[in-house]
Specification:
Blueprint: H1 2-28, E1 33-36, H2 41-47, E2 63-76, H3 82-91, E3 103-108, E4 119-123, E5 130-138, E6 141-146, E7 152-162, E8 169-179, H4 182-191, H5 193-212, E9 216-228, H6 237-260, E10 268-278, H7 288-291, E11 294-304, E12 316-323, E13 329-336, E14 352-354, E15 356-359, E16 364-366, E17 369-377, E18 383-384, H8 387-396, E19 399-407, E20 413-423, E21 442-443, H9 446-464
Parallel strand pairs: 1-9
Antiparallel strand pairs: 2-8, 2-9, 3-4, 4-5, 5-6, 6-7, 7-8, 10-11, 10-20, 11-12, 12-13, 13-15, 14-18, 15-17, 16-17, 16-21, 17-19, 19-20
Length: about 475
């Protein structure tokens, strides 16, 4: 009877709790510093020993990419030492948990603070009750392993230590995991609901730990993530078959078209010398192109995708090439799309180079975040979408584009400016972003996987085409 009553209370609390959590996430998410760990996440998972006992859901058994995540908060002025803080936290996990979205319920073990072999169920909204077992306990840390039925497969550790440069405490939550099932992988990777819920939960947990310690936070919670694809052997035969089929559907027709016309798309365009003026955004992406404050020389090619007569609208393309701090070239391809969450995923026919918006259309991944890149140009008067008008416009007055970045479902934020300077000498190199990637940006999604082989096939066929 008591169990049923508790379930009813939780069911009634979840809608209000989720609303509160969403409001808190909107208010604080931009302040959370997100960085890349740059570790070998797969190797880290392989170093975790296999745990004895039944029901353990090991990261090796999960699906999808491997994630290593680290949430860190620095605490000043606490009267507690690391061991005292961990003891206090282990005595009541709900004292730090955002109970509107996650309640720890001890299901196995005594009333004492948590010990190895104790089990908990983390009750969450919807069908996401997450069972865990304590598999390690030291004076300054404890670690859970996920059990069968959990959203994730892996382990998570809570630890405290003295800061290396003083008496402050540093509290860290670190996990090594994959999704426990395919639905969870979709919610985390594709939709992003589980990812943002998880980020909110553990970031809020860290702030509550600072209160529990009787101290004050120094700065904000820092979140570091590394993502690594699972082994090729772990990829399902269906996924590989789909990728191969879609690649063939794009690659072969475009390669055949390249034998007829050297450039099946964007046959004519103008190449300009340009300058990249980068100033970063209000948040840290872990990508030099988005974070750096610098000025770089660049090349830009503007072209009409289908090569239709200039009196007709066309999909307009902008190809950008620059030299990265590493010394390698980077390339980015943009085309006329919309600005809205839906519109940025659709190509637009345009009758003018300006005003226009050029978007990446396909997403990229920076750590565990997916993003879209874009460039907006508002040149007055407007510039018709023919090459002669474009050349004249660049000669007559400054022609600048505002560089923008957005998360897949977020708003746009400026991170730089692209200035066209004038026509550049002919450059025989073809643009191929798969061969010249942007440092820190990983192409995301099926169509991005298709792009590389398609470009390579088209450029091989172009070299063989009769001149």
């Amino acid at each position: 009877m008591r169990v049923q009553w508790r379930r009813r209370v939780r069911a009634a609390r979840w809608p209000a709790g989720m609303g509160l959590a969403a409001w808190r996430w909107l208010r604080t998410s931009r302040r959370i510093r997100r960085r890349r760990l740059r570790t070998e996440a797969v190797a880290e998972v392989r170093r975790i020993p296999r745990r004895p006992g039944g029901g353990v859901q090991d990261a090796r058994q999960g699906v999808g990419p491997v994630f290593q995540r680290r949430y860190t908060v620095r605490i000043a002025g606490s009267p507690l030492g690391p061991a005292e803080l961990i003891t206090r936290l282990g005595a009541d996990l709900n004292a730090a948990s955002p109970v509107e979205v996650a309640v720890f319920d001890k299901t196995s073990g005594g009333a004492r603070p948590l010990e190895v072999e104790d089990e908990y169920v983390v009750h969450m909204p919807g069908p996401w009750n997450c069972p865990v077992r304590v598999v390690e306990r030291t004076p300054e840390s404890f670690r859970f392993a996920t059990l069968r039925g959990h959203l994730e497969a892996g382990e998570i550790e809570f630890r405290a230590a003295r800061a290396p440069d003083g008496d402050d405490l540093v509290f860290t939550i670190e996990s090594w995991a994959r999704s426990g099932e395919r639905l969870a992988a979709v919610l985390y990777e594709k939709v992003g609901i589980a990812k943002e819920m998880q980020l909110h939960m553990w970031a809020h947990f860290c702030t509550r730990v600072a209160e529990l310690a009787g101290g004050r936070m120094v700065g904000e919670v820092e979140v570091q993530t590394e993502r690594a694809s699972g082994s090729a052997a772990g990829e399902s035969l269906v996924a590989r078959a789909v990728t191969g089929a879609v690649t063939g559907a794009f690659k072969h027709p475009f390669a055949l078209a390249a034998r007829v016309r050297s450039r099946p798309l964007h046959p004519e365009g103008l190449l300009f010398d340009a300058t990249l003026l980068l100033h970063g955004t209000s948040q840290y992406w872990g990508v030099p192109f988005l974070d750096d404050r610098t000025e770089l020389p660049a090349e830009v090619r503007l072209s009409r995708a289908m090569g239709l007569p200039s009196v007709l609208p066309d999909i307009l393309g902008l190809a950008l090439r620059w030299r990265q701090p590493s010394g390698d070239d980077a390339e980015l391809l943009l085309a006329t799309t919309g600005l809205t969450v839906l519109g940025r995923r659709l190509l637009h026919l345009k009758g003018a180079w300006s005003p226009a918006f050029y978007g990446s259309l396909l997403p990229y991944r920076a750590g565990d975040r997916r993003l879209i890149l874009g460039a907006a140009v508002h040149h007055s008067p407007s510039v018709p979408a023919d090459l002669r008008s474009l050349d004249r416009a660049v000669r007559d007055r400054p022609f600048s584009l505002t560089l923008l970045v957005a998360s897949e479902f977020g708003g746009w934020e400026r991170f730089g400016e692209l200035r066209l300077l004038g026509l550049a000498p002919t450059d025989p190199r073809r643009f191929n972003p798969a061969r010249n990637p942007v440092e820190g940006l990983e192409p995301a999604g099926l169509l991005q996987q298709v792009r590389g082989p398609t470009y390579a096939a088209v450029q091989r066929a172009s070299r063989k085409a009769p001149r």
